[in-house]
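User: Please look over both lines:
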Amino acid sequence: MPSTTATTYGSLPTPAPNGDANTGNNSETSTLLPPPNKPAPRPSSQRLYKHLTVRVSRARADLLLLLSYIITGLLDSSAIFIWGSFVSMQTGNTVYVGLGLADPKGSTRWIKSAVSIACFCAGSFCFSRFHNFFSPRRRWVLSASYATQLVLIVAAAVIVTLDEKSEQRDKSKKELRWDVLVPLGLVAFQSSGQAVTSRALQYGSLTSVVLTSIYCDLWSDPALFTAPLTENLERNRRAAAPVLLLIGALLGGVWAHSSVGLPGALWTAAAIKGVIVVAWLVWKTEPEDVEELVR
């Protein structure tokens, strides 16, 4: 007599204890689905977009602005020695323009100084509107700003480097040549970007194009000699700025008196600009925007 517990052909299988008839398939489907409560990974393009559009943190960002003082000293000392005008500090150029207007035929220095001032003002107009239109502290905005400055310095360096003959360089000091005015204008234009960035990061005193106000504020500080290093950061910045500019000016003077000349100063400045561009790409994110990266 057949057993009563045997399963006949066509009968339904006994349900699993938890009521799931597909228990046997769970091991297969579970490997195809993301774990519960864990979002699916975002595409790399979306992660990159989030990374570039968040704001960078102001914390320690003054270090990059202080690094720009080396660039200013490097370029201005070389430019004043080779071209006879400044490319960053427009106070001196304004004085040269005034002196030139008093005796227009005495020298062409005032014309080069006027070109530098005009290009610096144009750069300030463009960089400030670029920052304000796209949000001043977004990562890609700061990186693009310094990348543009880098490209302008490289363009100037290429022009100057191609003009290798010594008689051309000596002649360019006295005459208004395109291979003087164009690189002069390019470098002056990009110098304004550093000043605009200091405003964007709310470090208004670190424009990298003026020291007179920094000297005044530094020596007017009532806690100049009494406050510990960690308790007076503004004083520390004001003290570091002229020292770094002096270092840059020293390097620029060395380049200007050496065989590499002005091209060496320009290429060195371009290298430092490149370091700052990379720094903005990896700089710490503003704490309020960190949540945007994990969404």
